[in-house]
Amino acid sequence: MKLTRDILLNVPNLFSALRIVLIPLFLYLLFLRTSTTMFWALVVFCLASLTDLIDGWSARHLNQETELGRFLDPLADKFLVISAFIALLFLDPLIPFWMVLVIVARDILITVMRYLAIKKGTVLRTSRFGKVKTAFQMISIIIIIMVFIVQRSWIVVRHSFPVEGPLKFQIVGDILLSDNPYRYLIAGPFLLMAFVTLLTALSGIRYLFTNWRVLIPPYRPGGKS
Hints:
With 225 residues, the protein is an all-alpha fold. It has helices at 2-8, 11-31, 35-61, 67-91, 97-119, 128-154, 169-176, 183-211. It is globular.
């Protein structure tokens, strides 16, 4: 009972939980695929992203940092960002599956490493690079949704560009070299996703380099030191 009461009265954890609760509403509005509903999906995503700043600030200033909060905060970020990227995969045929796969694989890797760190009675070494990566992911999602809104408002014509192919770099190159007046709007989401994927992969490699010891047994029962 005390644990439940502590969770309910913990402001940072409430904001982290709110970030997760907003995900279904965000996806529902996004998949209606009209410029109006996408605008409201953008508003919901911005609000959800704002809770990430609020829960971190409140945890420090209200002295409410908890083990649950340290677990729930990054988990809420991952749910929000991965849900958005998977949605973008279905909304834009130029965004390749492998980019989203790299992003998801990195987050699964870090989640496993965080669990193993707990089993060893330690914590993962983090850096500002991880926070920069998350911030840029959220900013990129916001920009891409804004591009989708403009595409639908201006009725952007894709002409007959093919979208099949695993990598799609050549397809995007052909679009950028074409005389299509909307070529940057069409290729923009792919270019942003390519940069986000590179940044995410580098972040995962950095985590591996600085925390490789957590992958090596032995692990303590219960994770106690």
